[in-house]
Amino acid sequence: MTRTTIHVDGTWRGALSGETRDVLDPADGQPFAVVAEGGTADADAAVASARAAFDSGVWRGAAVSERSALLRRVADLLVRDREELALLESRDAGKTVEEGRIDVDCVADTFRYFADLALTEGAGRVVDAGSDTVHSVVVHEPVGVCALITPWNYPLLQASWKIAPALAAGNTFVVKPSEITPLSTVALIALLTEAGLPAGVAGVVTGPGHTVGARLCEHPDVDLVSFTGGLTSGVKVAQAAAPGVKKVALELGGKNPNVVFADFCDTPAGFDTAVDQALNAAFIHSGQVCSAGSRLIIEESVRERFVAELSRRAGRIRLGRGTEKDVECGPLVSLAQLERTEEYVASALGEGAILRSGGARPEPSGTRPAGGWFYEPTVLDRCHRRMRVVREEVFGPVLTVETFRTEDEAVTLANDTEFGLAGAVWTADAARGRRVAGRLRHGTVWINDFHPYLPQAEWGGFGKSGIGRELGPSGLAEYREAKHIYQNLAPRPVRWFSG
Ligand code: NAD
């Protein structure tokens, strides 16, 4: 990857300051690419270009069918470059190449979904005004210039959840990827250009959050800010956007309960399935997933058997460089993330948690270079909700175990979080599954499953997990303004005033 990773006005260039940043490979801590380190001047230039493109009408004035066709072309290009993008995401974010492939497939699906939705949701809605002499219609228009800010755990995926609907609705945008994992977003913008997107409609500025990101949020020519990231940054984003009364969408963290009833474990394949899925829920991508099932909430009667098997299997997860064959789990994305994880585990042990598996950096091996930011999948038993590790988002491979005796207790525990992104319930009793799902205060609830999402279903959180929704019809609505056009077909004086 070159240093010319800033895209403004249809041109690739370096930072105006000339500064660059090394991109590090989490598997060995070594630089493997260099990107432009943009600053506020680059953000300003990108916004000016996006503003001019929006005001010119080059994209919002295009037929919906044309916008839809472009999104479909992008999906085709993603399929063409699937392997290359999966590898890039693996090097940059540390995930396995197979996870990278799944991400690219989901990104292509997202572009296809919004390509279709733009067509079906494009028409206005005629409103019955209660009069034959009034024609009333509600139409939807793009919001304007969008600032899109994304995190490092699913760089390409999170960018696509914003870019596809923003374009489908006719907006222009500037995207700022995480400074830790900028590469796949830069590649995606190149694909948009190749697909024929007019210059200025899509801009990207690589650079830090506190400069580029903050400037985009406060910029007077930005109409909407869509942010995915941590709670602390999300609050700053909302504060920076408030004086401009911009539309703000926030996708923040989660502390997601995985509730397992004993009745599910008593069914023939139930025990194995629930253990296997609990493992997947907590440890996929080393737990660096906003919806990670990091809180196992299990019925007391089955706890010991379940945790013993879960810990045994967690200890067998093959850690290594994501590009190596047979590796099941990659490193953490950064040294800071590794140290944060260690700190949470130490604090949990200090508060009385029992370590059942992991809890350390693994020894280097053939697939695990010495400088990599690896951490063993860790199971902490005998946890309770007053512990920091249970209340706060670790964003590492750490699973806490709490127990319940009754359904009410399970629901109370699962809802006892300031977040509300996602959760799951495992039970052989279908009625109980639906009952518990109905009582959970989380944006997504899985019954007897964990992690799947659908582009056509809304994603987002209750509580401090965010504001607004991505994906589904609401994901498009975020990027549109509704306009009511009321046409009087037989105008006459109203004579309210007599003079
Ligand atoms: P982060 O908040 O540190 O950074 C996210 C992005 O915001 C980065 O691009 C960063 O540069 C930028 N940023 C930082 N400070 C900013 C500021 N003051 N103004 C504007 N932009 C700023 O988050 P992260 O560590 O990259 O990602 C991990 C977090 O993201 C976790 O909390 C995770 O739960 C969350 N996340 C949520 C979802 C979801 O769908 N809800 C999905 C993925 C990740």
List keywords for this structure.
499 residues, alpha/beta, seven-stranded mixed beta sheet, six-stranded mixed beta sheet
What does the model show?
Helix content is 39%, strand content 20%. It has 499 residues and is α/β, with parallel strands linked by helices. It has a seven-stranded mixed β-sheet with strand order 14-15-16-13-12-17-18, sandwiched between helices. Strands 9-8-7-10-11-19 form a six-stranded mixed β-sheet, sandwiched between helices. Helix 5 (155-168) links the parallel strand 7 and strand 8 (172-176). Bound molecules: nicotinamide-adenine-dinucleotide. Nicotinamide-adenine-dinucleotide (NAD) is lined by residues 149-154, 158, 176, 178-179, 208-210, 213-214, 217, 228-230, 233, 236-237, 251-254, 290, 393, 395, 421, 461, 465-466. Residues 149-154, 158, 176, 178-179, 208-210, 213-214, 217, 228-230, 233, 236-237, 251-254, 290, 393, 395, 421, 461, 465-466 line the site of nicotinamide-adenine-dinucleotide (NAD).
Which secondary structure elements does this structure contain, and how are they paired or packed?
Elements: E1 6-8, E2 11-13, E3 20-25, E4 30-36, H1 40-56, H2 64-80, H3 82-93, H4 97-120, E5 125-127, E6 134-142, E7 145-149, H5 155-168, E8 172-176, H6 183-194, E9 202-204, H7 209-218, E10 224-228, H8 231-241, E11 247-251, E12 257-260, H9 262-266, H10 270-283, E13 295-299, H11 303-314, H12 335-350, E14 354-357, E15 378-381, H13 388-391, E16 398-404, H14 407-415, E17 422-426, H15 430-439, E18 444-447, E19 466-467, H16 472-477, E20 480-488
Parallel strand pairs: 7-8, 7-10, 8-9, 10-11, 12-13, 12-17, 13-16, 15-16, 17-18
Antiparallel strand pairs: 1-2, 3-4, 5-6, 6-20, 11-19, 14-15
Helix pairs in contact: 1-7, 2-4, 2-6, 3-4, 4-5, 7-8, 10-11
